[in-house]
Each structure stands twice: as C-alpha cells, then as structure tokens.
Amino acid sequence: MQVTEAADIIDEIISSLKRDPDQFKPSFSVIGNDVTSSDVTIEMARKKGAPVFDEQFNFLLQDLREIADQLRSPSPDKLLIQEILASFRGSWIPGVIIGVVGNVVSKASGF
After folding, report:
1. In this structure, how many other beta carbons lie within 10 angstroms of the beta carbon of residue 93?
2. I want to staple 7 with a disulfide (CB 3.0 to 4.6 A). Which of 16, 56, 71, 82 is the partner?
3. Residue-wise pLDDT tens for the chain (111 aa)?
C-alpha cells in the first residue's frame, strides 16, 4: 500500500465521522419502572458530558488529519505518527478506528 492510499483511507474515516458524528457517541438507557427523579440526573449528566465528548471528538479529527497530512508529506514524521497512534490506545476511541488506522499506517510503504 502506498502512503497516499493510506492517507486517502484516513480521509474517508474523517469524512464518515463528520457526516455521522453520532455513530460513536455513547447512549444511555434507563431500565426499570421505579425511575423517578433519577432520570433528571441522567439527563443532566448527558448534557454535561456532551461538550467533553465533542471536544475529544474534535481532537480525534485533528489527530487523524495530522496523520493523513504527515503521510502525504515528502518527509513524514514517523515518530509523530507513532506517538499519535500510541495515544489512541487505552482511550475512548473505538477499537475499529484504532485498528484500521494502525493497520493502514503499518502497511503503507516505508512504515
């Protein structure tokens, strides 16, 4: 796989995430009949958590953009790419994104 092909795949991931950002947002469910005031607490927690999630989501998009830009660069910073990929591990980022991006980068020529 050429590095430009890897960058194109990452661009598609970015486009998909921008088109449908809710595909990886956590959802909350309340099960049971005895929920009274706690549903208000859940709604408040959801509203408080949304800005944090949005901020982290934007960081993910920036990191993916940085990887794609580095791959297209005449002299990509391999260490930077590896650091970004390492920062994904153990984070909230869905495993499918970590796996695909990691595999695409590792299969790209010169990586």
Report:
1. 19
2. 71
3. 889 999 999 999 999 999 988 777 655 555 555 444 444 444 545 566 677 778 888 999 999 999 999 999 999 999 999 999 999 998 888 889 999 999 999 998 766
Instruction: Measure CA 22 to chain center.
Output: 12
91 token code pair: 């984070």
Domain that holds residue 61: 3-107
28 token code pair: 């909350």
Q: What separation, in Å, do the N-terminal and C-terminal C-alpha atoms of the chain show?
A: 10
CA–CA separation, 16 vs 23, rounded Å?
9
Angle at 58 between CA 53 and CA 87, to 5 degrees: 85
**89, 91, 69: which is closest to 80 by C-alpha?**
69
Q: How many domains does the chain have?
A: 1
Q: Is the CB of residue 103 less than 8 Å from the CB of residue 65?
A: no
Q: For the whole model, what pTM was predicted?
A: 0.75
